[in-house]
Write a structure and sequence with these properties.
Blueprint: H1 5-15, H2 17-21, E1 25-29, E2 34-39, H3 53-75, E3 79-90, E4 97-102, H4 105-118, E5 122-131, E6 137-149
Antiparallel strand pairs: 1-2, 2-4, 3-6, 4-5, 5-6
Helix pairs in contact: 3-4
Length: 154
């Protein structure tokens, strides 16, 4: 069974409560794209009357990580996943609802397939772009995911 926004958001509430309390939610996911949303409010503000950068990072990471988790689940084989690096740029104050989109499903699929086939760890940089209601880019995050097939003990 494929991962759905409802399943991922339940996982978020149970395993990443800080992101859940700040309002981060997965909105949609398919094989190529995942979209998350977070709305500026009191609990996720910074002193400059906009959304704290780390909250944007949680929403951005979820848009990439949901694709990683989805493909691992689809493969049905145990694969570990971990963010090794990240970088971000900010171009506008994040006020209102911010939508993060990652369209790197094919890239992470190839990395996971290669990791399973080789038995070695692989890395994949994934990009998440955050836009406000006007369609203006407020931030862009890049996450380097590492994936490795877990050894199965018989």
């Amino acid at each position: 069974m494929a991962l759905s926004p409802r399943k991922i958001n339940t996982f978020l509430a149970l395993k990443l409560p800080a992101a859940f309390m700040c309002g981060v939610r997965l909105k949609s996911i398919d094989a190529q794209r995942a979209t998350t949303a977070v709305t500026f409010r009191w609990i996720n503000q910074n002193p400059f009357n906009s959304m704290f950068w780390a909250v944007q990072g949680m929403a951005a990471e979820l848009s990439t990580g949901a694709l990683v988790m989805s493909y691992i689940k689809k493969r049905g084989e145990p694969v570990s996943m971990l963010v090794a690096n990240n970088k971000a740029t900010f171009s506008k104050k994040a006020i209102g609802k911010i939508i993060f989109t990652c369209t790197d499903g094919e890239a992470i699929r190839k990395a996971i397939d290669a990791a399973i086939l080789s038995g070695e760890g692989k890395t994949c940089w994934m990009r998440a772009e955050g836009k406000d209601r006007a369609g203006d880019v407020v931030s862009v995050f890049h996450f380097e995911w590492t994936v490795k097939a877990k050894s199965q003990k018989h």
